[in-house]
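INFO batch 0412 | record 1 of 1 | parsing
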Amino acid sequence: MIKDNQKIFNRLQLLLDAVIVAASYMLAWYIKFHIIDRIRGAEGVGALSMREYFGVLVFIVPVYMVLYYYCNVYTPKRTVRRRYEILDILKANTIGLLIFIVALYVLKQMHISREMIFIFYVLNVCFTSLFKIVVRRLLKTFRKKGYNLKHILLVGYSRAAEEYIDRILGNPEWGYVACGILDDSVPAGTLYRGIKVLGRVDNLHVILPENKLDEISITLSLKDYDRLEEIVDICEKSGVHTKFIPDYMSLIPSKPYTEDLMGLPAINIRHVPLTNTGNMIIKRLVDILGSLFGLIFLSPVMLICAFLVKFTSKGPVIFKQERVGLHNKNFYMYKFRSMRQQQDCEEKKGWTVKNDPRVTKVGKVLRKTSLDELPQLINILKGDMSLVGPRPERPQFVAKFKEEIPRYMVKHQVRPGLTGWAQINGYRGDSSIKRRVEYDLYYIENWSLWMDIKIIFLTFFTGFINKNAY
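INFO prediction complete | emitting C-alpha cells
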C-alpha cells in the first residue's frame, strides 16, 4: 500500500533534490571557471578558491529544500499538471536567486561570481524540472502496471461522488482506484460507471479494520450531513487519510474565504480578492504598463495584420463589437476584422462555426493564431479590459447564459481579459460555456498577481493557437 512506502519515497525525493542542487552548483562553478573563462583566456583568476566556493553549499542546499517545501514542490502531484509543477520549481529557484544576491550584498561579499550564480540558477531549474518529469513518467508507467495505486472508498452517494468518480476515471494517470461506495439510501449493487455501491455506511466498522484502504473520501449528500461528525470520528480513529468532498460546491467558492468569529468559523459565500483597493490598483498598473509595452513591441505585427485585412477584403480594418464588462456595463471591444462585412442583424445571429462562409482567408489565420485579438490592448489601456480575466460576451448571450448557468454573472465582478485561466486550459472559442465559467470563477476567487503572471506566461505556450477558433 502507498502509505507504507510514502515516507521512504518522500525522503528519497528530498535527498535526490539536494544532490541535484549541489551538482548544479558544482557544474556551474566548472562551466564558469574552466570553460567560459578558458574561452576568454582568463582561466583560474577567480578571487576565491574551489574550497571556498563549495563551502557555501552548506547553506545553499538547506535553504533550497525549505524553499521547495514552501513553494509546494513537495505537495502531492497526482492531480497537478506538469507545467504547474515546473512553475513551482521556477518560483522556488527565482526566490532562491534573489535571496542569494541579497545575502551577498548584505555580507558585502563581492568575490563570488554573479555570472556563476546565474548559471547555477538556469542549471538547477532545468535539472530539477527534468528529474520531476522523469519521476512522473516512471510513476505513470508503474500505475499502468498496477503499482503505486491509491485505493479509495467513497462514503455517500451524491453529485459530489459522481463528479469525483468522473474525474478519477477521466485521469487514470492519477493512479486512483475507487473500490466502491457506501450509502444508506441507494441499494447495494447499484453501479455508477462501474463503481458499485457495496452496502450501508455502518459497514465502515467492518471495512476499516482490514487496513486495505489508502484513503476515505466522504461524499455525503446534503440530506445526510447529520452523520458527518460520526463518520469523520470513525475514519479518524482508523488512522486512514480522510478527505471531505462537499455536496454544496455549487454554492461556495473553490477556495472558501473564512472568518474567525471568536472561534466560530464563518464561510463567505463569495470572496473576490479584486474588490480589495490595493489589489485593484496593482492590477490596473500592470495592465497599463503591459498594454503600453504590448502596443509598442507588437506594433510591427499589428501593422502587417492591418495591411492584410485592408487589402484582401472590403470594409474597415478594426471591427468593434458590443460586449458586457465590469459591473455589467457594456463597452465596444476591438478586433482586427476577420469576416466579410455584415448587417447588424446578420452579425448577431450566433457563434462562428466550422467552415463559416463569413470568415475571410486572412481572417481564418488571424483567428487561429489569436492575432485578431491584438487591438484589445487599446481596450486594456482605456480600462475596459484587463490583460487577464474572463473573456467578455455579447449582451444577448449574457442574457441567455445567466438564466442557464449558475453563478454566471459573478464573472462581471472583475474586468474581462485578453486571456484568462479558462483560455490557457483549452476553453476558447466554440467550447463548453459551463466549463469555461467554472474556470473563470476559479480565477476570480483565487486571484493573485503571481497567478496573472503565470497565465500570461502560459498564454505564450498554450493560448495563442486556438484549435476551437473558426
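INFO post-check: The chain has a mean pLDDT of 85.
INFO record closed
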